[in-house]
Amino acid sequence: MSRKDSPSKREKILDVAEELFALHGYDGVTLRQIASGAGVDVALASYHFGKKLDLFQAVFDRRAALLNDARRDALHRCQAKAGKRGPSVEQIIEAFLRPLELAQETGDPGWRNYLALIAYINNSPYWGPRMMSKLFDALVQEFIEALRRALPEATDEDLYWCYNNLSGALTLTLAQTGRIDKLSGGRCTSDDFEAAYDHMIPFVAAGFRKVCKKRAR
Amino acid sequence: MSRKDSPSKREKILDVAEELFALHGYDGVTLRQIASGAGVDVALASYHFGKKLDLFQAVFDRRAALLNDARRDALHRCQAKAGKRGPSVEQIIEAFLRPLELAQETGDPGWRNYLALIAYINNSPYWGPRMMSKLFDALVQEFIEALRRALPEATDEDLYWCYNNLSGALTLTLAQTGRIDKLSGGRCTSDDFEAAYDHMIPFVAAGFRKVCKKRAR
DNA sequence: AAACAATTTCAACGGTTGTTGAAATTGGGC
DNA sequence: GCCCAATTTCAACAACCGTTGAAATTGTTT
Predict the structure, then answer these.
(1) pLDDT 10s digits, A132-188
(2) Which helix H or strand E contains B129, and what residues bound it?
(3) B123 and A119 in contact by Cβ < 8 A?
């Protein structure tokens, strides 16, 4: 193998780490569990990635660029399709959410684990501020700018609190806790991302519209 | 002291555990950190609570009944005030959220940590299914029933997915990650629960209305 | 096939973890 | 002031943690 493509074990470590970190969090997983799950020695993780924290970061980084690109493409495409007035709230929310759904249909089951890991990090008071901003904030600001153009009466406070609501609804869905399965008696399932987004998009769009409507001041 | 009221150290352990578990999760906190923060020996936690997991459960249980009572009171009070047609969506959502805000104004700063802990548990694929249902599901079903009466055209799927959106938006807010502070350049702050709920209530209510409106079938 | 670098395993280290049994301390009832 | 029980500390255990240096293996180039 030519030095750049020895994917099997290195990639396997990332896959297992991704799955375990998403389920138990950073501190709930040991390097030995990861190595055992990947069928390799403990020291191999250190050899490839250095410290445990570096492995965590590597898992986090691996799919971030692809996800951002897919979202940015979706946003720009819907902006291009919309006329001079720009896309509607629904179209922008859709561009924000649908790439996540598509990521799950690539056949790579790792995407589900990765998105659950994002949910863990985004909801953590410790990891959230430390890891989310650097990779995701720039694109989020692009989406918020697009929303501002679609909602010309919105204040900054409105937009950011509404985005917080969107981000929270999305995060809980990505976390795949299976709570909705039990609550609904099996009528809804956490696995069904299509149903989740089909309900989330009109829900969130209506929320934005309501909050960002002109009011008496 | 008469055996039932030696609150100082036992309660202090719960307070510190609550704060640390909320910040770092179950596995991210050691009993020694908790004991150190409480100014007691490590063994005292075991003496009072048994295993580490039992302490975690004790922290989780401590305020659950109070929270449920406050929410149930708020729901029944708004149902009593509303006529025979029942309360509006906004009133139900308000009954679901405002007690959380009030809990923070009791002067006990532990409530903030407790709600952040709930957010951690609710968003965790591991802890969520294990701990949330037993204490919270019954009341959640009451709220969903009330919402069903306010939204007679809603299907079960609509209601549960919308509740999922509500729960997610709430969870991210309770987690107090401070991300909205940075995103908004300081215009919004995670600490401001009143502002959060002021935006969340109309947002969520509009979402419910939109999704649960009669459609072509 | 020899030489070399990249990969992988082996073995071990110092430090930390949750837990426990026994000792020490505290505080109220007689 | 003595007894008893509840509380708190002390000391220590076996198990496990992340990390590292050296050895073994593998794969590629010459």
Answers:
(1) 999 999 999 999 999 999 999 999 999 999 999 999 999 999 999 999 999 999 999
(2) helix B127-150
(3) yes
